[in-house]
Design a protein that fits this description.
Number of domains: 2
Strand content: over 45%
CATH class of the largest domain: Mainly Beta
Number of helices: 2
CATH architecture of the largest domain: Sandwich
Shape: elongated
Radius of gyration: 22 Å
Order of helices and strands: HEEEEEEHEEE
Number of strands: 9
Distance between the termini: 77 Å
Structural class: alpha+beta
Helix content: 10-25%
Oligomer: single chain
CATH superfamily of the largest domain: Immunoglobulins
CATH topology of the largest domain: Immunoglobulin-like
Largest sheet: 5 strands, antiparallel
Low-confidence stretches: 8-26
């Protein structure tokens, strides 16, 4: 191998090492997963046949740049059964290094969701799961949040 080929080989290895280190650098600064916690749930636009449940999520953005969510598709399950689904294309911005409250409205038909509603209204703890996909800067990112809810913690907001 000539001296030029050896230098070229080391140059390629150096560029690859810098690139890989750079990817790690960018991932640490800009690619961390947000932390999501359920802050509250309230009802609005309630009629005898339906309501809109608004899930208030506390979203912490650990990244060095704002997260701009262009679209959200989400589903709520109660005790591992589909409760309701929704999509929103309202722009949601979570500032860099901060925690924001994000409200996700979920229209619910009482007839369709009678099983889950009965358990919630009886005051029992009910396992919930919110799963879906967020479109952030054209990239689709899945999410999943699980926990327990109880009617005692719910409030009504008009």
């Amino acid at each position: 191998m000539s001296a030029v080929e050896v230098r070229m080989k080391y140059f390629v290895i150096l560029i690859m090492a810098i690139s890989l280190g750079g990817c790690s650098y960018f991932k640490d600064r800009y690619g961390q997963k947000p932390e999501i916690d359920m802050a509250n749930i309230y009802f609005q636009n309630t009629t005898p046949l339906s309501t809109t449940m608004v899930f208030v999520l506390s979203v912490k953005n650990p990244n060095k740049i704002d997260l701009k969510v262009e679209e959200l598709t989400y589903e709520v399950q109660l005790d591992q059964k589909e409760f309701a689904k929704a999509t929103t294309d309202k722009l949601i911005t979570i500032p860099a290094g901060q925690t924001s409250q994000v409200e996700l409205p979920l229209p619910v038909s009482f007839l369709k969701a009678i099983d889950g509603i009965t358990k919630v209204l009886s005051g029992q703890d009910v396992g919930y799961e919110i799963l879906g996909e967020a479109k952030v800067s054209g990239i689709r990112l899945p999410f999943n949040e699980k926990g327990q809810l109880n009617m005692n913690g719910l409030t009504k907001k008009e």
